[in-house]
């Protein structure tokens, strides 16, 4: 390291007012040269220390870089596995919640549907529109009436085929008059 010079309280190296110990400007120049040399030596030492630090960083920098890459890969594997575990847990939880909500919604949907059907049927009934049950009953009644009408027609055809002939006074025969079915009028 550089040598330090001791300064007195008044700022000179030896304490004299002109800084030359009574010798004048030759002593001051010598001291200035000494001080400049010390500063130069100190600057040189700082420069050399910086170069040595730079060289050391270059030598060990590759090793440090590789170590940091390895550590980063290790951290990535750890965080990725934790993230995958969390994702799978969250997915399972969400699937459970979705199925629960779906079952609740379908139950409520069924109730809503039946309530809607009841209200519509009530409104149609008030308007005089027949229900499906009423129409089915009417169809069954019409089928019964058609069967009954067919039986009546069949029973009326049998006596007509075996029509009795009556003899008139002149010996000619004529068929008996056939009875016509009675038509019902709508009430």
Could you give the order of the helices and strands? Answer: HHEE
Oligomer: single chain
Averaged pLDDT, please?
77
**What structural class do you assign from the helix and strand content?**
mainly alpha
Approximate shape = rod-shaped
Strand content: under 5%
N-to-C CA distance? 136 Å
Low-confidence stretches: 1-11, 15-20
- The radius of gyration computed from the alpha-carbon positions, rounded to a whole number of angstroms, is 63 Å
Strands across the major sheet, in which order?
1-2
**DSSP E strands, number:** 2
Put simply, the count of helices is 2
Helix content: over 70%
Major sheet, described briefly? 2 strands, antiparallel
Describe this structure as you would to a colleague.
The longest helix is centred in the middle third of the chain and has 103 residues, at 25-127. The protein has a domain at 27-127. The chain has 187 residues and is mainly α. Helices cover 71% and strands 3% of the residues. Strand 1 (165-167) and strand 2 form a beta hairpin. A two-stranded antiparallel sheet has the order 1-2. It has helices at residues 25-127, 132-161; strands spanning 165-167, 173-175.
